[in-house]
Amino acid sequence: MIDETFQAWRLDDVRQTLVLAARRTRLPEVVYWGPPLPAEEDLATLFHAHALDVTGGMLDENPDLSICPEASRTFPGQPGLIIRSEGGTPLLPKFCYDRADQTDDTLTLRYKDADLGLHYAAQFKTDPDTRVITCKATLDTDAPVHLHWMAAPVMPGPQLSDEMIDVAGRWTGEFQLNRTAWSPGMRYRENRTGRTGHEHFPGLIVPCRGATNTLGQAYAFHYGWSGGHKMIAEELPDGRRQIQFGHAARMEVNAATHFSSASLYITFSDDGLNGCAVAFQRHLRDRIVTPANDRPRPVHYNCWEAVYFDHKLDVLKDIATRAADLGAERFVLDDGWFGQRDDDTTSLSDWEVDPRKYPDGLGPLIDHVHAAGMSFGIWFEPEMINPDSNLHRAHPDWALGSEDQTLGRQQKALNMGLPEVRDFVYDRMAAILSEYPIDYIKWDHNRVLPAPDADQTRGSYALIDRLRADFPAVEIESCASGGGRIDFGILKRTQRVWLSDSNDALERLKMQHNAALFLPMSVTGSHVGPRRCHTSGRVLDISFRAWVAAQRHMGFEMDPRELDPREEAVLREVTSWWKHNRDWLIPADILRLDSADPAVIAEQQMARDHSRFVVFAGKAGTSTQIAPRPLRLTRLEPDARYRVTLVNRNNIAPPALSRGNPILKERSIEVSGTWLMTQGLTLPWSFPETMWVLEGEKL
Ligand code: GLA
């Protein structure tokens, strides 16, 4: 819609409307983002009604909080674009409308600054099924410029919101949620490690006042880029709020004439944080990830915590036989098979099978794994090089960073911006993938970069893309010391993430629950670890370990030789339950429940056709009160009846301390959706570090 004083555009899916409006030829502001507006809503009125009053002590007009706020218009906060000429002079763009193109699902707005020779475009793409809007900004320039900062299209933050939720973490402690109160000024998070990072997951949720997992309004954001991002959530002096996401500042090392933000994925929900979570889960699973095959997700066995670098063929064969017998369907040979890799000081980049450990190559192990009915996967850390490696001796200049840099795990990163480096790594990996029947790569990235550099990320993407094009049947898992490279950019090219190096089921329970705000089950690897966890020292029962792994893409990582007969039996039973249910569980929505007991972390995985669900209620600590508090379910049909069964009443050894007879201990119940969502389920008493699993079926 265009007239002389303003222009406006609207985007709709079934859950949200986004309205952009601009005065005259200026950049537009988001003047509405929320529940669907009536088709006949008058955008002219919305535009005029959106304007703020002017009072004392301020300019005579409020600077626009546009999709790319301009410093040249005295915008009082972080501008959307910071650039300099090639010679270093700051450039202050003042964009003017050029053209708009709109199709059913995509709006592209183009602006230019003719004096400075700058062309800015913003794109918004809706998705009617997933309800995620994908936004992107690009800048083209007539002469090369230095880019300091470019935000993906800038969104307003709701003002009826007291806090924002973002995600921090560390090695073995990924996906920790932070709640920060809004206040004047900015919350600025920037990841300068050159990879997505454990520390600053590129996501943000802004709940409106009163929102919980299952109720209320929330806005959510995810920046799909693996090179490190910057986020700004800022409250301006006038009270307006803006949210910016982009690459970490100054990541573009050279002056250039074309720049692009990564995709910013945004969604509005009016049914709690779960509305955002489900949108992201579905969008990632159904739109971003490109599966390598249509087989069901296989149960993994990964040998890392069983043998580390100590690869002995007979031991690995024995382990493989046992893993298959327990239900594993894919065997992943972790670090230690190449070069002279007896510990982590050496051999990264020498991707040739170690003849000391495998005198006849990997063939005998792979044949054994296949004979046991499993497929075979292998570990690489393609972007890395140890100074103690043949490649480093031949090409020290291929390593990124200075000679006196601090190493990380005794290693440097390769300069992935160099085509000859990418070709070398490609050739070595392709040789292994061509020689052996391998259907899976665990792709690791265990150190941060000396400095953020967008060429490095683009180089990694190019290498993965080339390998995927040439070996389309090979699936890839993104690992970076656990969850250090998880984002929708890497997941365009990979099919699974190693959420954490922690196989401690208690830690995992929490991490998985939080990660579900962004990640579906299909991509989230989760393994049953050793009885005594290697990263926490905690000893946890097999039932808890197995059920926590069964909440996501299940696997094992302990040495199966340590299992006693009861542990074997429980693991076999849970694995078989998982296989039996995976066809509907993998595409299911993970719904975080509002647990009345803070000691209980509970989620409900809901089939896409709503015909069934499973509830995992994990007891992460000791409750304050004596008796379990009722657990309310969500998103059921109020009038439908459901049969609810406590699946694992037999394999949590019922402690003598649960002496009563709650009905679920004995048999299934048949109840209405209303009762389940209002009164909720009363579970039997249980120890901390146990998990109740309930199946529900719509009758
Ligand atoms: C990283 C990974 C682990 C394992 C080791 C191997 O730490 O996160 O799972 O693969 O590397 O060195």
Automatic annotation (TrEMBL):
Ranges in coiled-coil conformation: none
This protein's UniProt keywords: Glycosidase, Hydrolase
EC number: 3.2.1.22
PANTHER family listed in its UniProt record: ALPHA-GALACTOSIDASE C-RELATED, GLYCOSIDASE FAMILY 31
Domain Glycosyl hydrolase family 36 C-terminal: 605-685
Record's keyword annotation contains Hydrolase: yes
Signal peptide: none
SUPFAM superfamilies per the UniProt record, alphabetical: (Trans)glycosidases
Transmembrane segments: none
Protein name, entry field: alpha-galactosidase
Record bears the keyword Hydrolase: yes
Organism: Litoreibacter ponti
Catalytic activity: Hydrolysis of terminal, non-reducing alpha-D-galactose residues in alpha-D-galactosides, including galactose oligosaccharides, galactomannans and galactolipids
Gene Ontology molecular functions: alpha-galactosidase activity
One record GO biological process: carbohydrate catabolic process
